[in-house]
Each structure stands twice: as structure tokens, then as C-alpha cells.
Amino acid sequence: xxxxxxxxxxxxxxxxxxxxxxxxxxxxxxxxxxxxxxxxxxxxxxxxxxxxxxxxxxxxxxxxxxxxxxxxxxxxxxxxxxxxxxxxxxxxxxxxxxxxxxxxxxxxxxxxxxxxxxxxxxxxxxxxxxxxxxxxxxxxxxxxxxxxxxxxxxxxxxxxxxxxxxxxxxxxxxxxxxxxxxxxxx
Length: 186
Ligand code: AMP
Prior knowledge:
By secondary structure, the chain is of the alpha/beta class. The protein is built from 6 helices and 7 strands; from the N terminus they run E-H-E-H-E-E-H-E-H-E-H-E-H. The structure holds adenosine monophosphate.
């Protein structure tokens, strides 16, 4: 079994609750300790920067992918193990996902939601079976899971939509889930 890569989607801001920052720190450190490579959007801002810096500090490999027009805005973090610049956002998301064995979603904004829903809809269509974990830090994602329940209740998706991701409360639980998933894959 080769080294695993975990794609982290998260906010380009830090958010209002310090718990989000702490979760990002814990996750970055834990990924590195497991020997897993972090794949992310290559920004040095908000939770993105925190996950990357903590993974690096713990000796982990980091793989960042950023579109050329966001290099300035998100302060492209060029000291990663691998740093890839794409032409478009679509390419960025594709390169990130293709190079990952699993996805973890930390708190974030519209960009994070876009990334989550993209991998969720791909899973719904049977295009991938990679584990997708929503890190529900202090209930941050409760409205998201509530929205998905609502969509199902109103007949716009099957109950099985919920089987394509798992909600976990802490980075420690996320790592435990990923370990189990990777072990099952062999
Ligand atoms: P946010 O959660 O909005 O802070 O964004 C998190 C990441 O998603 C950042 O790297 C953004 O560049 C990216 N992002 C923002 N908007 C979009 C979008 N429409 N499509 C794809 N990614 C986006």
C-alpha cells in the first residue's frame, strides 16, 4: 500500500470561531503523522494556510494546486513539496481530486461548498467511491446536513445521497475513519 493522499477543502478565511482554526491545525498535524500527503488549494490564507503550515511543520508532504488568477489573492504557498499552477478553477479541482484517495471538508465558505457538492454529485453518479468526510467542528456543518435531509425529504434525492459522505466531530475521528477506509482498500 503506497502513501495515501488526503484532499482537504476548507475556508480561505479563518472563520469566527477559533475552534475552526484548532481543527485545521490538528488535522494538518495528524495527516503528516499518519504519513499521508496533504492535497489542497495551495493558498497561504485562512484555514488553508493553517492546514498546510501545520502539515509541513510535522514533516508531512504537501501538494498544492492553484489557478494562476488566484496566486495573488490567496497568496500562493510556493514552498510545498509539489506546487501546481492551473489555468482554471475547474482544472484545479480536477487535479486536486485526481491526486487524492480521500476528501476531508473543514469549515469554509462558498468555495468549500462548491468543492464538497462537486465530489458529492460525482459519488451520486457512481464516478468515484473515495471516502468523503465532513468535519463538523462544533456543529458548523449542521445546516448543511439539514439541507441535504430537506432535499431528500422533498423528493429531490434518494436517501442514499447521505451514504456518500460521513460527518465526524473531530480530526481524531476523521483520521480513525480514514485509517479504517484505507485498510479496507488494502
Ligand atoms: P472559501 O470556502 O470560499 O473560502 O473557498 C475555499 C477555496 O475554494 C478557495 O481556494 C477558493 O479559491 C475556492 N473557491 C472559491 N470559489 C470557488 C468556486 N466558485 N469554484 C471552485 N472553487 C472555489
